[in-house]
Design a protein that fits this description.
- The structure is a homotetramer of 422-residue chains.
- Chain A has 422 residues and is of the alpha/beta class.
- The first copy, chain A, folds into two domains: 10-61 and 322-420, Aspartate Aminotransferase, domain 1 (Alpha-Beta Complex), CATH 3.90.1150; 63-320, Aspartate Aminotransferase, domain 2 (3-Layer(aba) Sandwich).
- The first copy, chain A, has 15 helices and 17 strands.
- The first copy, chain A, has helices at 2-7, 9-14, 21-24, 50-53, 62-73, 86-100, 116-131, 148-151, 157-161, 187-194, 222-234, 305-318, 323-345, 369-379, 404-420; strands spanning 29-33, 36-39, 44-47, 108-110, 136-139, 170-173, 205-208, 211-212, 218-219, 238-242, 266-269, 282-285, 352-356, 359-363, 382-383, 385-387, 393-396.
- A seven-stranded mixed beta sheet of chain A has the order 4-12-11-10-7-5-6.
- In chain A, α5 (62-73) packs antiparallel against α12 (305-318).
- Chains in contact: A-B, A-C, B-D, C-D.
- Chains C and D meet through α2, α3, β1, α4 and α5 of C and α2, α3, β1, α4 and α5 of D.
Chain lengths: 422, 422, 422, 422
């Protein structure tokens, strides 16, 4: 270990203090495959964080890797701005045929720049442009990104403080079950809308995550989402589902909102859309909302063609049929059963769990416990991270492609970490 | 051509109206190498736009390609969040040894997310956090990005209108020579600063491009930049140089501000930093400004390790000595001579030119001429684009690696396009 | 009547469309005394609107009139900027001796300019300056004024739209009983405060009316106000009570919050503080909050000395003992009894009533009914106006000095107007 | 003096630190008449500050006093909200007949609340509502008021800091001669407007004072004002002249812009409009701009009828013919001659002067000198104050009604104060 620490020095001396994950996992990683990361000293870690949801198919999945290497080797266009390329066409056709059409969606596809926050910025800009209103409603503990527009609809006070300017035009409403079921859903929100004296400027849109990952793995019920969709329709607000972390199959279906049977006006996708961890993002919207002028929103890396190649390969490999969805739900049950057992054994620590598909959170009454569990898990070879406003939740985002025995191994390690931090 | 048009249909039917470059260059591109792009019908185009400055070393440069393929083949970490990896370490060490140290810079390196606008957002957030002031001064015809914070310091009215909310906290000042030399440099800016009754809220920072690419290839003189740096120092404002388009050797030196002998407090880099057109961005700042809390700014794709690999290879290949800088300046003279000839021949059309290194603009009195020149050039097999607030400038950003005869070929095509649009 | 209409023409031709009360009461008024207004044709009206609360002691009360005439006749200073004058001193001493000290208040007195909105602007500026935070929480259906700062904490959408810019830094919370008792008081507000991920920027202050006059005569319970005061204390937010309409005895005690036993950090007064309908306003705050620099907030008419003279006379005449308070409560019972009878008789119209002291509202299920009642009352010689976000409430603000038989007369007219609009 | 100081104690103990003029003139004033103020100890002061321009006809002018006393004695309506009253009608008719019509103005009259900042807020709201744009251009060293909207177009950094929130939507441009004639008028402003890439959001309006009183008695030339009016017309921006301090005859004509021959779209008046120092304000605008909805902007003290009475009397007494204008210009020459002599005698102190009509400023190279002059003048029985961003200008605003010998007396005192502070 001493050797590694010596070798990390350039990170300490040159990289900004803003770095974070490297502090909890103080190793220098070198190789990655499937569910595993290997550091330069040969230690192997089971990765149940999966790039914060960017690696739903694990690290370097072979089929995608092959497609990527082939494309690079034959000098396919790498950087394509927003030019038409064969790689982009293949992606668009495949996305249309395997994702949009089977789900009855006729949304237009925008390449807003290759990160989630770009996709959110584009969604917010478009909603405001269409509705000619400034206000956007977000939810308690929402996370939508770090650029100024996205940050203004993000809940976390620590992140918000980084803006250096007051964050305006965003209004938070209570997420599902935020007030412990003591208040009827949308009672407050709808009352504000119907009362011309409420002080709420009429919103252009509502932006929501179906499961709040960064916010603590808070799961919205399908009926809550349906009621929200109805509210948006009745009050002429666009419904934006930010599916950056929970889309691409994380909760079972390709989109996390499918289970609720709703059709958002605007959808943001990023993280796992390229399937290989390459930067890529999409903003989807109903055709009638496509009021952009050519080039009104742009960006240098909108056309990251290697990502289009792996994205196409990922759709072909995992979304040509319902296999991935079924498998994810089955694996989710495996995780749930294990968490249920941990929670029962640690009932005195106020342990609980929540989640959907393969996004799970393990909660404790003691706020510091989650961090200790993650730290111990790391020592035991498992990568998991905390989330929630007080970092009080251990968040599990294993690759959807994890085999049952890999899940089993990780969950056993987690149980041990919980035991040993009691 | 009919075939191609039929095949582009998915772009028309599915992709958002926001797409732009594909409209001026209506082909489906497939392969790329060096200065050339090839469409799926086998037509080859000389690319003097180079990914809007993201491809300074041309398309798919072989040395970088080899490094990238090797890394991917051996399952190096692809997606690394902000974990320490061997690829990141190699990049940091190389960047330190070949870029920072030789130039006497001790700046810290932040990975703010892999796009230019992320780098700018991080720079603005940091400046405001450090100085506890909101206002940031930018310049007429500045371009800094499309997310809300960056857009507020961008000049273009068309882009600004896309925000859907009033853009605040940014104040424009005249760029060098904006008022045709009729006003002493910084007369207005300094008067506003020194007058406690001027109405200018004290700025946290000034953000500037040394050459405004999108704004029309407007070149700031070295003495203007030095005066600006002095002004920032005297008035306790941070100087942010946005070197996203003009850095990485575009004007000769690695950083575009080297020629002026100034040291910015904050520097943004993106576009050509990965060298291969892969998304990557950096925000650099003086060590004393590194007041970030861990994770206060984050992003999923901060750790695009394939980009670190090609970035390292690019530094090794092009910046181990002063060869690239010298070659760029020589090539620049070649371009300048050609433009001078064009301008002299089209004096009656009010033709003029300006630029530095290998960033050049060809201007006309008639605003529509530039667009016609670009359209004709495309028909003749040359990719160039317009820039400037009225799209009145033909912008040339050939790869720095273009051979003299490739430059010659492109410049001849350009001259012909100018002739044929007279 | 024809004559009058002809003579109003300058109002139609020259005065802006923004005029409002003159539309509901289309007469040209000439004389006023006590509860009565007389138009130029000799018609006399009973005034139960009392200058929207600015005439708590009726029109031109003789004792105040005498003091005012004396002062003007002997050439006392009329316009005093914020210079020390004998009239100002007399007011300050009397206000201290009759208002502040007997109530155990040690608040500092600021003359912020002679209108309510000035007083609110000063309160908001001070709160933000003290706490170095921007956000101020207001309540649904709040009314605090028409200048930009006050408007941003006002609920009415119609008024807000007049701003022409997005109104920011204000966040609405539910006023007492806003959600019909279905939600625990402050459940939502406190949850937002305690959750670091809620998205609520920490407020500098809370601004509240104990009874919302413009908002529809919504009465906050004493225990709700006490809970609010506790919340402010616990979360380090200043409590601003806007007592512009409900202060100066309107609800019984001099300050409307006395009944609840709370001590606001900041208090705004205007309307009836001069007692004679002359423009005057005060912003009061705890001594520790007096962080203003000399002249940091100013205004030409801060020193409206004739108003100081009548204000002093009013305090001497009405607030030297508890007589006014007791009388107001007694008169309030008289009004309440009459409204109760009206409501019982018009139960089928969904009639209801609410109020405190001598501020009362008569409500109907049918939103248009209130306007019809006011119109008919005017024809019958009674001035009353609607309030509430949909103008659905008939608002009664009779002079506190109305004699029982005057009240009786007005209430009988009101009852008749209700009957005749059924 | 000791006695007085003891007696000022309630000001020290109870009044907020924000008080200002009373600090420079530490007496308790009791009586006022014409150009004179008398303190409670019988000392008489010559007042060349005249309520910061609110007392153009001096203190308590007898004709107005008589009209006011009559009105009050016969129980005319005192507080009239925005009801039609005979007093309001008389004012409107007189204002139309003596002010608007003779000057060819057909502006509508709005009563926005009785203070200058209310009038400015109303003007800004209307301009933004009409043009559907947020930005308003103001000028360096402008002063328009202390409420949030007006403060955002005010230059003084000290006042601005009091807002406690960032001031947005205002953009400062250089006032006439701001850059010492080294820059062509409006070069920068017009360039920003015509360049779609300048970063200036298209303004709804420009707000300007023809002579900046608070800003240091900066006088705009007539040709500069005309050029500004032309610029506004060409670029579809409303021209708002804030004539609160310089209107009502201060510079000669009733409106200060008459000399330049321009017709503003919007005009604000306050200060001396009531003629007696009573709070009153007007916002005037071209009929086509009267897009207000009834009650969209309101305020309790819009109908300060005693002020209407004195305002009418003032118009009758001073503006029935051109006598006041001629007299003011003559008196102005008297002041100018005296200042010229002072300046010549103190050339070595860098003394200078500027002004128009009866608004004058005496400037010194040494910033502290003006304050010392004012302090010494006060000891010698003359009230004058400093203005300008660094309080570097002695500002003279004697009553327009000052007799030649009164002016002579004051100017002699001033000269002595200058001498004795050398």
């Amino acid at each position: 270990m001493t050797i590694t620490e010596a070798e990390t020095s350039v990170f300490d001396t040159l990289e900004s203090q803003v770095r974070s994950y490297c502090r909890g996992w103080p190793r220098v990683f070198e190789y990655a495959h499937g569910c595993r990361l290997q550091d330069e000293d040969g230690h192997v870690y089971l990765d149940f964080f999966a790039g914060a949801g960017a690696l739903n198919y694990g690290h370097n999945p072979p089929v995608l890797k092959r497609a990527l290497l082939d494309y690079l080797e034959r000098d396919g266009v790498t950087h394509g701005l927003d030019m038409s390329t064969t790689a982009k066409r293949a992606f668009l056709e495949t996305f249309r045929d395997l994702v949009l059409r089977p789900r009855g969606l006729d949304h237009k596809v925008m390449f807003p720049g290759p990160t989630g926050t770009n996709a959110v910025e584009a969604a917010l800009k478009l909603a405001r442009k269409v509705k000619r209103r400034e206000t956007v409603v977000s939810f308690t503990n929402a996370f939508h990104g770090m650029s100024l527009g996205a940050l203004a609809v993000t809940g976390n006070a620590f992140k918000r403080a980084g803006a250096g300017v007051p964050l305006v035009h965003g209004v938070p409403m209570p997420f599902d079950n935020y007030l412990d079921g003591r208040v009827e859903d949308f009672l407050w929100f709808e009352r504000l809308l119907e009362d011309r004296g409420s002080g709420l400027s009429r919103p252009a849109a509502v932006i929501v995550e179906t499961v709040q990952g960064e916010g603590g793995v808070n799961v919205a019920r399908a009926e809550w989402l349906r009621a929200l969709a109805g509210l948006c329709r009745r009050w002429d607000m666009l419904l934006i589902v930010d599916d950056i972390q929970m889309g691409c199959g994380r909760t079972g279906g390709f989109f996390s909102f499918e289970e609720a049977g709703i059709v958002p006006d605007v959808i943001t996708l990023s993280k796992s859309i390229s399937g290989y961890g390459l930067p890529m993002a999409l903003t989807l919207f109903r055709p009638g909302l496509d009021v952009w002028e050519p080039g009104e929103h742009n960006g240098t890396f909108r056309g990251n063609n290697p990502a289009f190649v792996t994205a196409t390969a990922a759709l072909d490999a995992y979304w040509a049929d319902s296999g991935t969805e079924k498998q994810t739900l089955a694996r989710g049950e495996q995780v749930e059963a294990a968490l249920d057992e941990i929670a029962r054994e640690h009932r005195r620590s106020g342990a609980g769990y929540r989640g959907r598909g393969l996004a799970w959170g393990l909660t404790f009454a003691d706020a510091g416990r989650a961090a200790r569990v993650c730290a111990r898990a790391f020592e035991l070879g498992l990568l998991v991270e905390t989330s929630g406003p007080g970092n009080e939740v251990v968040k599990l985002l294993p690759p959807l492609t994890a085999a049952p025995d890999e899940l089993e191994e990780g969950l056993r390690t987690l149980a041990r970490a919980v035991d040993e931090t009691a």
